[in-house]
Amino acid sequence: MPDASSAASPRPIAVTLQVVSIVLFTFIGYLNIGIPLAVLPGYVHTDLGFGAVAAGLVISVQYLATLLSRPYAGRIIDTKGPKKAVIIGLFGCGLSGVFMLLAGWLDAWPMASLISLFIGRLVLGSAESLVGSGSIGWGIGRVGAANTAKVISWNGIASYGALAIGAPLGVLLVNAMGLWSMGVSIMLLAALGISLAWKKTPAPIVHGERMPFLHVLGLVLPHGTGLALGSIGFGTIATFITLYYASHTWPNAVLCLSLFGACFIGARLLFGNMINRIGGFRVAIACLSVEALGLLLLWLAPNPNLALAGAALTGFGFSLVFPALGVEAVNLVPAASRGAAVGAYSLFIDLSLGITGPVAGAVAAGFGFSSIFLFAALASLGGLGLSIYLYKQGKVMRDKAAPV
């Protein structure tokens, strides 16, 4: 059976509309992730009375669960189809809302409430790998591999746009009604997503020899490492920005998350086509440079306005790192193993976000909350150096392959 990418390409506006209709499920899934994002660290640290490391871990454990579930998610996408993977993932999102609701009811018993939160985060992390990678596979299957960069870019717009909306929404819900309202909202959103996904046309399953997951992982390892280093900045902002603002007695920490997301989306809308025009590595090099600058500004910020500027630069810079390196990574494998490639590449952001919480929490405990942004900036510079190396290596290979 031929790959969907071999079909005649529809007009760009039709492709975009079809992609948007599919990444809607990523938006719903990540809205479920974003709603508790700005609330849980403070709830664990202040209301339940646990330390900064536990506050970071309650966020990071979700990403660790996503990391561990990536191989299984990739296998479902490649063998059962991305639509089925998305629906299973949305069921998982709804189940995580049940545990969030239970945690609110158990707040008189801090350890029981924390355990319920951890279980819910583990379920949500596993669901994220199915919804996020499934939507990418579904989109590529519907509009063709030639539009991989567009699918990944719009999927990121959906995910970070949902985080930007979800974070302040979660704060409003908790302030108005309490922690239980987040659990109910997550369950309702998951039910909406399932009802919409059920009616949509699935992508064709690509038949052919499938590469072992470990082989795919080895191929995308360099690109994934660059992604992991670049993702530490986002993980640091998402997990600790509320506590960083509190340490300076600054108001409106949630604006940093919203501005990060707005600049992230704006950069993808304005410059997403640059990946196909000048290549993924060049875009990654430019983006990681801007991200590092934003994180250094957050580290040195003497007031909340400059902190907002740092968050804006970080979001703008991080915006195209995932699709830029992702296009280069996915192109290394055949179409029949595309789901495995997306899953293998994506697990590096899960690994990065999974370790960022406890590691940055330990850095904050020893050196203060400002120092975690210096740590993140150094990581971004490491990703920049690796991207430059990969670009030069690719250029050498292309020069050797060119006819004399």
From TrEMBL:
Domain Major facilitator superfamily (MFS) profile, residue spans? 18-395
> What's the source species for this entry?
Pseudomonas abietaniphila
Q: How does this protein lie in the membrane?
A: Multi-pass membrane protein
Q: Which GO terms describe its molecular function?
A: transmembrane transporter activity
- UniProt superkingdom: Bacteria
Q: Which HAMAP family match?
A: MFS_YhhS
* Localization per record: Cell inner membrane; Cell membrane
- Tell me which SUPFAM superfamilies the record gives: MFS general substrate transporter (SSF103473)
InterPro entries reported for this sequence: MFS, MFS_dom, MFS_trans_sf, MFS_Transporters, MFS_YhhS-like
- The regions listed as transmembrane in this protein's record are 12-33, 53-73, 85-106, 118-140, 152-173, 179-198, 219-246, 252-271, 283-301, 307-330, 342-366, 372-391
Q: What is this protein called?
A: Uncharacterized MFS-type transporter SAMN05216605_117122
Keyword Cell membrane part of the UniProt annotation: yes
Which keywords, in A-to-Z order, does the entry hold?
A: Cell inner membrane, Cell membrane, Membrane, Transmembrane, Transmembrane helix, Transport
Family according to the record: Belongs to the major facilitator superfamily. YhhS family.
Provide the Gene Ontology terms for cellular component: plasma membrane
The record's listing under NCBIfam families reads: PRK05122.1, PRK12382.1
